[in-house]
Every structure is written in structure tokens, then in C-alpha cells.
């Protein structure tokens, strides 16, 4: 989608090749993501993404009081029933864990996951959609002394956590177990071999602001998930299952890594422009929008959430799918996507218009009274050419290093958003008019 990669000079590609050795995409997913950042800069040290698709804990905490016992790798002995250690990955991660251990007798190794430190324990925090209790734990059972390797089953993929509590269940107080290795195969951003290859950047003289921006960018990455790892519906009463099919393609953007792990167009109101300026790869957005068109209702309305949840009945979320479509086209000029879905877009516009109350004609009734004044809608009329050019510059491949120049510091702050363009037609009438609005004047 971003042809700039083809234009990278050879010497960058070569230096990247040695750097990314050993990195990989998720399982059998075809790699389609960028190989390296659009251009290098000091802001890269703020990127939270792991360097590799395989992550490890950084320290061991006490379950009793959450204080640090030691760094990891290190000694990790468990002895007797319910003895436990908490492994801290140092940041939010998600995927499939593998644990190697040595046991002296029969029992079970329990695994429990939490995002926040205040929920660590022998139960995972809540993600399954019932929210009646926590999600419980999963177990690696062993019947005799020996060396074991346990890898979680794919449906048990844990989408978002920082703390992994490992505990021993035995019928006695003498059986002991040593944890010898822990690795986590990261599931998110499945089509990227280099999880740090951001196409946008942010840098200011406020370190707090820089961290906030990169936390947001990393959150978007953790929300780009393999399409067959959505939360299972109907919600389970206990445990968890992330084996739901979310939509087409290899990667799709969901509302949250841990939960709901479903496509929510309302969240995409923020996520689509944010993905564009930070990660810069809109493939997950495209697939999330496509699944809305694939599940458009007979009356033209879009679902409130993607499958398998397929919640219905939100006028605003219906419009967020339309706004998401507009933004996606604005950022990518993916006219093939537009041609494919144009009839659906028109039906969606019709469905929305038929619900609108006219502010000038009191005889017209409907449910979308505020539609002509919400920022959400008028925003589509605000993105003038200057605004678009500014945003596309954010991911421009006009690399400082390519030009042989030193990085001159953060770019000049952008101008204020341009005033609403009174000539912007609404609704948009056909693909060529949308294209014209979105691009031709920017060219
Ligand atoms: C925390 O608990 C551990 C035992 O797990 C104990 O050794 C340590 O002294 C405790 N630390 C604090 C600060 O209470
Ligand atoms: C675990 O390690 C401790 C200390 O290194 C050792 O005493 C114990 O025998 C080990 N247990 C197993 C099952 O290997
Ligand atoms: C623990 O004891 C129960 C009840 O006797 C038995 O069913 C179970 O198999 C035992 N577990 C192990 C790991 O020996
Ligand atoms: C494995 O061990 C756990 C904890 O003791 C137990 O709840 C579970 O039933 C066991 N699973 C199997 C298949 O034995
Ligand atoms: C082992 O610990 C678990 C968790 O605290 C508890 O539910 C179970 O009853 C204990 N088993 C034995 C045999 O004490
Ligand atoms: C864990 O065990 C597996 C199977 O024996 C082995 O291939 C792998 O290298 C071990 N991992 C580590 C980090 O030792
Ligand atoms: C997903 O997991 C749930 C819970 O284990 C199970 O009931 C369901 O059949 C699974 N679905 C598929 C498609 O494997
Ligand atoms: C957008 O795509 C269309 C169709 O491929 C093309 O004609 C047009 O020049 C493109 N616009 C921009 C700004 O790249």
C-alpha cells in the first residue's frame, strides 16, 4: 500500500537485512509489513514494541506483595501445593506462551494472566465476555518426575497481559518444580517481521507526551490481530477461547488486545487516523471495514460490532463505518476497495439519511437528530488539501539519511485545521466525486 518501501535505497535495505535476522511474522502468515522505519531518528528509542516476535519476562515478582524477587532469567523454584511466582514481561504483550520446567513428582503447572499488578494471583483477569468471575487458569499436567515443555493451545491465546503467574498444584508439600525457560510467541501485528518498523514518528521536548504517543502507537499494534483469534461467542462461563473468526485477510484491527477482541467501528473513529500517522499500515483497517460491508444488513445498516459478536442497532457506529471508509480512502487512495463497496456505501448513506430529522422541517422525524452538527460528520468536510498534505508528510519517505543530512530536529508544528470547505458536497455521489474530493485537489 505504501509504495515508498520500493523506493528505499539499497544500502538501507541491506543494513536492515542483518538487523531483522531471526525476526518473523506470525506462524504461517505471509509477511507484508515494512522492514524498517520510514527513516531513522532519536524517537525510535521510545518505541515499546519488542525487537523480536518472541518475548521473555524481565523479572520475577513475589505473589504475596508484588515486589521484585530477582531478574529473569534466574532461579525459579516452586515447592508444595499452591506455591507461585509472578513473571513480569515489563510491558503489555500477548500471544502463546511456552514454559520449560523440571518436576520432581506428579502435579500440574498452572498459568494465570493479568494486565494489572493488582489482579495477579492463581486466576486470570476477565476477558471472556461473561465477566462473572476471572477467567481462571490453564494447566500443564504431569504424572511423574521429569523435564517438560508446555505450549498453550492456539484457542487459549492470551491477547493482552503483562504478568504471568506460574503455580504448582500437587497433593503434597514436598513435590518441587523448577521453571527453566519461558518464551512468548507474540500474536499481534501478524504480518510484520519487524514489529518496530513504524512509518510515522512523533518527537517533542516533552518526554511525557512522547511516551503517551508511543503508548498509543503500541496499543494500536497490539490491536492488530490474526483474523482467527477473535473472542469466541457465545461468551464462556469460565476460561477463555480466542478462536473466533473476525474477518477477511491476515490481520484485522479490534477494539482491545485482551477484550473484546472484536471489530468495533466506533473505536475506529480514533484508531484509523491514529494508525495512519503512527504505524502507517492500514491493512488491518481495510479488513475491519470490509467485514462491516460483508455483514451489512438488508436495510442498509452496518452491524455495531464485527463477527462473531455481530451486535446490532447503533446509528452512530453505523456512521463510524462510513467515516472509517472515508478516512481509509483519504489515506490510501485504495480505489479498488471503494469500487468493491460503493453500492454498500450508497445503501448505508440512504439508511442513515432516512433516519435523519430535518432541523428546518419539523414534519420529518427520525433518530439521528444531531447528524448535521456532530463533529464526526462535519469532520469529513474539514480535511482540506493542506491537512492531507501535512498528514502524508508524516509518513513521507523523504528520508534525512538518504539525503545525507543530519536530522534537523522536530518538524515545524502544523497549521491549524483548515476552515470547513463550504463547497464540499454532501452526500458524495459516486466514486469519481469521492476521489475528486479526497485526492485530486491534493495532487
Ligand atoms: C515480599 O514477599 C516476599 C516473599 O514472597 C518476602 O521475602 C519479602 O520480604 C516481601 N517484601 C516486602 C517488601 O514485604
Ligand atoms: C530445582 O532447583 C533446586 C535448586 O537448584 C534443586 O534443589 C531441586 O532439586 C531442583 N528441582 C528439580 C525438580 O530439578
Ligand atoms: C491428588 O489426589 C486426588 C484425590 O486422591 C487424585 O484424584 C489426584 O489424581 C491426585 N493428583 C495428583 C497429581 O497426584
Ligand atoms: C490438570 O490439573 C488441574 C489442577 O490440578 C486439574 O484441575 C485438571 O482437571 C487436570 N487436568 C487433567 C486433564 O487431568
Ligand atoms: C492446592 O491449592 C489449591 C489452590 O489454593 C487448592 O484449591 C487445593 O485445595 C490445594 N490442594 C491440596 C491437596 O491442598
Ligand atoms: C524448551 O524445551 C524444548 C523441548 O525440549 C527445547 O526445544 C527448547 O530449546 C527449550 N527452550 C529453552 C529456552 O531451553
Ligand atoms: C472455540 O472454542 C470454544 C470453547 O472451547 C468451542 O466451544 C468452539 O467450538 C470453538 N470453535 C471453533 C470454531 O473451534
Ligand atoms: C488514486 O487512484 C486513481 C485510480 O487508480 C488514480 O487515477 C489517481 O491518480 C490516484 N490519486 C492519487 C492522488 O494518487
Tally of domains = 2
Order of helices and strands: HEEEEEEEEEEHEEHHHHHHH
Helical proportion, percent range: 25-40%
- Described by its quaternary structure, the protein is single chain
Major sheet details: 10 strands, antiparallel
Ligands bound to this protein structure: 2-acetamido-2-deoxy-beta-D-glucopyranose
Q: Given the C-alpha coordinates, what overall shape results? A: globular
* Structural class estimated from helices and strands: alpha+beta
**Span of the ends, CA to CA:** 18 Å
Work out the number of β strands. Answer: 12
Q: Beta-sheet strand percentage? A: 15-25%
Mean pLDDT across residues: 82
Low-confidence stretches: 1-22, 368-421, 424-443
Total count of helical runs of at least 4 residues: 9
Cα radius of gyration in angstroms: 24 Å
Would you mind describing this structure in some detail?
This protein is globular. Strands 1, 2, 3, 4, 5, 6, 7, 8, 9 and 10 form a 10-stranded antiparallel β-sheet that branches. It has a two-stranded antiparallel sheet with strand order 11-12. The protein is of the alpha+beta class and 443 residues long. Helix 3 (265-277) runs antiparallel to helix 4. The protein folds into 2 domains: 54-186, Galactose-binding domain-like (Jelly Rolls); 200-440, no CATH class. The two termini are 18 Å apart. It is built from 9 helices and 12 strands. It has helices spanning 10-19, 207-222, 265-277, 283-294, 315-332, 335-353, 375-382, 385-394, 431-440; strands at residues 54-55, 59-61, 68-71, 77-79, 84-103, 107-114, 138-142, 146-151, 158-169, 176-186, 224-226, 251-253. It binds 2-acetamido-2-deoxy-beta-D-glucopyranose (NAG) (8 copies). Residues 100, 149, 181 line the site of one 2-acetamido-2-deoxy-beta-D-glucopyranose.
